[in-house]
Amino acid sequence: MKKLASLTLSLLPSLLWAQSGPYTIQGQLGTSGSPAKAYLRYMAGSTVKLDSTTIQNGKFEFKGSVENPMKGNLLVVKNGASLNKNTSVPSISLYLEPGTIKVISPDSLKNALVSGTQLNVDNQKLEASLKTTREKMEKLMQEYRSATPEQRSKKEFEESIDKRYEAIEAEQKAVYAQFVKAMPKSLVSLDALKSFGGYAPEYGDVKPVFDGLDETVKNSKAGQEYTAVMNRIKATSVGEMAPDFTQADTSGKAVALHDFKGKYVLVDFWASWCGPCRAENPNVVKNYNEFKSKNFTVLGVSLDRPNAKEAWLKAIHKDNLTWTQVSDLKFWDNDVAKQYGIRAIPQNFLIGPDGKIVAKNVRGEALGKKLTEVLAGQP
Hints:
four-stranded mixed sheet, alpha+beta, redox-active center, Redoxin domain-containing protein, five-stranded mixed sheet, Glutaredoxin, Thioredoxin_CS
């Protein structure tokens, strides 16, 4: 009897988040009477949804329903200001799942605790574990933002910031991995795994951690979706044959990856709207001009938005990108980007003459070093 009761209790977290149904978010952020609005942002398929409500005397409420639990963000905008992409506003993550979700703070959203449902209780444990490393990261970012342009231009300063950033990132990865190990039956662990993998996860890193999850998590809708993501990651790992694709160039002509067989080709994912991509473009141009006579070329794949062909063409011209460029102008739904599991840009894949992936995400000085290495001996 005790064993059965114990088994039932151990399964409760998994069973709770497996349910679909209505949810209510009840918030209390102090007792401030100043004008403010709360926004709830979440994904519905591939569409970003944004609900809003007025905060009165610190109180607010959202109601909705879910077919499957999902992660969302709660944001607060004060003084009647509108929410837009250029506005930096306080936000916290929470899970939308059946039940009453409570968001309570003595003052602001920053200090809010989320409770009331199992996944949000689990997520609070993860947030608490990350507190120290996040404070370190924020301190580092403040140091970088307060630096003068002259300081930022110095190589030693940039290298110091990068080294410390990577060290903090490694600490965070250890926290995520430990959380997954300790909470294998929680759906929060799947999101922790995604954060562990970062914007460009390596199959050899994420697969062992994923294998440690409980079968209920693996077999959930989100777990099955991430299995498909891992399969794409595996298919685009170093040493694998690069998945072939065909997409239209700037004149509408179909261009296929296999057209470049026999050459080293850097498949470069970018977009005209992407600041870091545009900042990296001069480096790609430099290396293209240096190595194009040694059986090397670049194939750009743009994630520009629908109806933004003109912006794409202007960026190509302004940045002197003289190599072949392709795009279906579908933004993040770009077919090649989805095929290669691209969730952030810039990213690139260096493909050898035999069609195998030689390297991934080589940028800055690393790109020149890698090309010098692989192209040694080329006529």
